[in-house]
Write a structure and sequence with these properties.
This protein has 428 residues and is of the alpha/beta class. 29% of the residues lie in helices and 23% in strands. The strands form three sheets. Strands 4, 13, 14, 15, 16, 17, 18, 19 and 20 form a nine-stranded mixed β-sheet that branches. Strands 5-6-7-8-9-10-11-12 form an eight-stranded parallel β-barrel, surrounded by five helices.
Length: 428
């Protein structure tokens, strides 16, 4: 469920017309719904009741500070993959003890920062990383809680680029290494191994790979406990898919909870989840204005928008589908026309979709890319020296710009000329 609905023929976010936001903020613009973020988090966490689970929101899905603060006030922790994401989570009000630090390539500086900050858990993904963590912990005189991330050799996810649990993927340690490294960490005296972790992919619509991975973690836990090595918790990652409108609805959190209960019924273990997309995707849209419609004599029809691949790269990178809706609804009997929906970037890859059937559109009309709240703004860039898209958060009948669009002066001001290229005080 999301809170983007047509009222009197105009698409709204909660109680705010998207057209009003576009008029005041300009386009393209990302718009997020507080009600949707809150509902998705609450439904996900509540699906496991009466089992109490920790939910560490995957910051990489949407790292806007106001989005993070909204979730933090609901009790969310944060799954982070960089020092910058840790800083974002802390600034947004996530308690440091609820911060998980993941990632296959943590630098020594990032590990030292995480230990000094006191994050709640560090997910170790290789033996060299364990070596570094032990050394840094001894140097700092701290004993951090950590997990070993296991690669269960289970493939899952909506695209090869977001499948993370196969043996050929860079993430985690092999099954053969997991028990040995966990035992080694336990015997080091420098770190406190408290959990095993896994994450097998994103946009998962079939729960069987998740259930297989969970069973693998249970077996490993039993092996370690059989050696007298405690395992207090399992970090089961995220990955649950969301409906992108062109496919059957994926399993809901309640179905995931049923799978968890099948695997862990009667098993004494605490559980953590790291959902991202399932919380944020359908809580956001990207609103764009039509620049013009380019008709080719042979019949091709290009809908040229002011949004581009640098604003929403998912279609170019992942062949991703986004439902596209006119902000002003067409008449129910309006004919549908095939459009190639493109942006102004000087690349053929700047194509959102081809042959999409839409009502007739013209210059200055507004359209909304649905399900754009995850991996939209966070993956945007200033390619072609295009300003980053502003982000807006709606709460009922009010809205606020929570990341402004930079000016060209601000963009260029970040790049000082090399001293030998100074223009002798003259303006270019």
């Amino acid at each position: 469920m999301n809170h983007f609905e047509a009222r009197a023929g105009e698409l709204h976010c909660e109680d705010v017309p998207l057209r009003r936001i576009a008029q005041q903020v300009g386009t393209p613009v990302y718009v997020y719904s507080t009600a949707t973020l809150s509902r998705h988090f609450t439904v996900f966490q509540g699906a496991f009741a009466p089992r109490a689970v920790e939910v560490a929101y995957a910051v990489k899905a949407n790292s806007n500070l106001s989005v993070l603060a909204t979730l933090a006030r609901l009790g969310a922790g944060a799954d982070t993959v960089s020092q910058g994401e840790i800083l974002r989570a802390l600034k947004a009000g996530v308690p440091v003890g609820k911060v998980v630090f993941s990632g296959a390539g943590k630098t020594r500086a990032e590990l030292a920062f995480a230990l000094a900050a006191g994050v709640g858990q560090i997910n170790v993904e290789s033996e060299p990383e364990l070596d570094a963590l032990i050394q840094i912990a001894r140097e700092l005189g701290v004993q951090p809680a950590m997990a070993i991330r296991v690669n269960p050799d289970v493939g899952a996810g909506g695209h090869a680029k977001i499948s993370t649990g196969k043996a050929e993927n860079k993430f985690g340690v092999s099954l053969g290494e997991a028990v040995r490294l966990y035992a080694r960490a336990a015997g080091s005296g420098a770190v406190r191994p408290v959990a095993l972790a896994c994450h097998v992919g994103s946009q998962i619509t079939d729960l069987q790979p998740l259930e297989d991975a969970y069973r693998t973690l249970r077996v490993l836990t039993e092996q370690l406990r059989g050696q007298g090595i405690p395992v207090a918790k399992l970090d089961l990652g995220g990955g649950l898919g969301v409906p992108y409108f062109n496919q059957p609805a994926p399993p809901p959190p309640s179905a995931l909870a049923e799978a968890v209960n099948r695997v862990f019924e009667g098993f004494d273990i605490a559980l953590t989840f790291e959902p991202g997309r399932v919380i944020a995707a359908n809580a956001g849209v990207l609103v764009s204005e039509v620049i013009h419609v380019h008709h080719r004599p042979e019949g091709r029809r290009f809908l040229v928008l002011d949004a581009a691949m640098n604003d929403l790269i998912r279609p170019a990178m992942y062949d991703a589908y986004h439902d596209i809706r006119p902000v002003t609804a067409a008449a129910p009997d309006a004919p549908l026309l095939p459009y190639d929906v493109v942006g102004p970037i000087c690349e053929t890859g700047d194509t959102f979709t081809r042959g999409r059937l839409l009502p007739e559109l013209k210059a200055r009309d507004l359209v909304a890319f649905m399900s754009a709240g995850a991996y939209g703004a966070v993956m945007s860039s200033e390619y072609n020296t295009r300003p980053l898209v502003p982000e807006v958060l709606v709460n009922g009948a009010q809205f606020a710009v929570v990341r402004p669009r930079p000016t060209y002066e601000e963009m260029l001001g970040r790049e000082p000329l090399a001293p030998w290229l100074e223009l002798d005080g003259a303006s270019p």
